[in-house]
Design goal:
The protein has 3 helices and 5 strands. It is α+β, with helices and mostly antiparallel strands. A 3-stranded antiparallel beta sheet has the order 3-4-5. Strands 1-2 form a two-stranded antiparallel sheet. The model has no long low-confidence stretch (mean pLDDT 81).
């Protein structure tokens, strides 16, 4: 608790037995695609490649060279592929 209060003093307040958090960012755990593929079986690899194709199809008009780098993708808990190198995505 001391570390949280030190690191996020503007967002965390302790009152009696209660801890109040003003803002909180929750991030999904994502495994980098190359790391995931090292240990994935054949069926998991096929499913992830299909998910990658779906993700790429949704961005088809806005794909840049860096978007094709497998290190910019990660696999979520349920095998869905996400682009997670947000500084490479232009809007």
């Amino acid at each position: 608790m001391a570390e949280i209060l030190q690191q996020a003093a503007a967002s965390v307040q302790v009152e009696g037995d209660g801890v109040f958090i003003r803002s909180l960012i929750v991030q999904m755990k994502i495994v980098p695609l190359p790391v995931y593929l090292e240990s994935a079986g054949e069926s998991a690899t096929e499913a992830v490649i299909r998910s990658l194709a779906t993700a790429s199809a949704t961005m088809r008009d806005d794909i840049f060279n860096k978007d094709l780098d497998s290190r910019n993708y990660g696999v979520g808990r349920y095998g869905r592929v996400f682009l997670f190198d947000y500084d490479a995505v232009e809007s």
